[in-house]
């Protein structure tokens, strides 16, 4: 979908405005002319919506913002929900349902707003326990029972605690764990591109090189490693395709690698992102991985520290495993670029990521100071006793 932005007109703009009105971010247009325009007020409302959802705030409506807007119009109880494989129900009503089920101790998976088989299963379990027909469909009777019982249960962040517990239970060794490494962009989608004298650097190529180096190192340490794409894919891959692959593989961790870019060549540094919102729920394990990746890279490379940030990007939100995205420096910064094009520097970045992954699996009491793991010793450190 082309981004709909300031100045646009037409049916899509009318639709966007009507959703923003329902969300009380925009005052209804009562003028008799029925050709609503994407005006300044609409853009402000879109920005407020994006901010509240942890989306990139650009005031435009492209795919991800559109899907979030489309989902936001539904409130629990406004429509009957059930599991369909071909065209699943998506919306804030589904997310409310999932959050309520989680608060009550059922396990519909992460509250991703998609009515999948796990959600239907959790609904059926709830129905059985309250004496309703366990058909996995969320109609008026089920919503009523959820409303009556839901209030008695103390809220919390059980799904994220469950994720943390599952991670802890998986044990302290890297051996046999599955990690998916996602080099951003690829093929027709080059990401940031910078001409540099006769040379031309692309984000897609450099992050693929980083991913391939990391793949080799982690595989040598006994992990099962998959990349989401090859060096020169024919088609561009969406974040949804990437996350679907990681989910299908049943990965234990996901690291997505990008480079940043900005008009201003002064912008520089490394930043890492995990699932979460500023005041709401956060993936505890994802936040920890992001912190380790960020600190190890800063310590081992000297890149400027642009810190870690919670985001609800689809890549992070729809993953069933702890997932982070790291933007390893600005391709548009002459100083970052000079380092990034040096293979020895990229090796240091990869060592930092390795050390972070290793520390994820060390018990808290055995954790070590940032920058102190010698990753060349990792195999000895992580090898499980064979006798
Ligand atoms: Zn990128």
UniProtKB/TrEMBL annotation:
Enzyme class: hydrolase
SMART domains: Ami_3 (SM00646)
Start and end residues of each MurNAc-LAA domain: 243-358
An MF annotation (GO) of this entry: N-acetylmuramoyl-L-alanine amidase activity
EC number annotated for this UniProt entry: 3.5.1.28
Entry keyword annotation includes Mitochondrion: no
Keywords of this entry: Hydrolase
PANTHER family: N-ACETYLMURAMOYL-L-ALANINE AMIDASE, N-ACETYLMURAMOYL-L-ALANINE AMIDASE AMIC
Protein name: N-acetylmuramoyl-L-alanine amidase
């Amino acid at each position: 979908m082309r981004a709909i932005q300031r100045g646009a007109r037409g049916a899509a703009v009318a639709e966007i405005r009507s959703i923003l009105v329902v969300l009380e971010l925009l005052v209804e247009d009562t003028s008799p002319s029925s050709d609503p325009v994407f005006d300044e007020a609409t853009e402000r409302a879109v920005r407020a919506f994006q901010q509240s959802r942890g989306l990139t705030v650009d005031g435009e409506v492209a795919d991800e913002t559109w899907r979030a807007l489309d989902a936001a119009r539904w409130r629990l109880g406004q429509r009957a929900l059930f599991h369909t494989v071909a065209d699943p129900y998506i919306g804030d009503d589904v997310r409310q349902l999932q959050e309520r089920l989680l608060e009550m101790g059922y396990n519909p998976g992460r509250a991703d707003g998609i009515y999948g088989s796990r959600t239907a299963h959790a609904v059926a379990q709830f129905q059985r326990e309250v004496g309703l027909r366990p058909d996995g469909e969320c109609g008026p009777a089920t919503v009523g029972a959820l409303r009556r019982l839901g209030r008695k249960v103390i809220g919390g962040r059980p799904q994220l605690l469950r994720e943390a517990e599952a991670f802890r239970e998986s044990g302290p060794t890297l051996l046999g764990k599955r990690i998916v490494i996602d080099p951003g962009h690829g093929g027709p989608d080059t990401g940031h591109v910078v001409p540099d004298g006769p040379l031309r650097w692309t984000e897609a190529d450099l992050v693929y090189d980083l991913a391939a180096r990391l793949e080799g190192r982690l595989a040598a340490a006994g992990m099962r490693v998959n990349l989401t794409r090859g060096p020169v894919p024919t088609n561009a891959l969406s974040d949804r395709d990437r996350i679907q692959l990681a989910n299908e593989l049943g990965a234990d961790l996901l690291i997505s690698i990008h480079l940043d870019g900005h008009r201003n060549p002064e912008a520089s540094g490394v930043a890492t992102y995990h699932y979460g919102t500023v005041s709401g729920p956060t993936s505890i394990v994802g936040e920890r991985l992001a912190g380790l990746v960020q600190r190890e890279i800063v310590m081992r490379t000297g890149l400027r520290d642009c810190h870690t940030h919670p985001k609800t990007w689809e890549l992070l939100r729809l993953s069933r495993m702890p997932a982070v995205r790291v933007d390893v420096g600005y391709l548009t910064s002459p100083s970052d670029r000079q380092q990034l094009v040096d293979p020895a520097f990229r090796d240091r970045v990869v060592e930092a990521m390795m050390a972070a992954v290793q520390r994820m699996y060390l018990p808290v009491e055995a954790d070590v100071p940032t920058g102190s793991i010698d990753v060349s010793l990792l195999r000895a450190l992580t090898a499980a006793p064979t006798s």
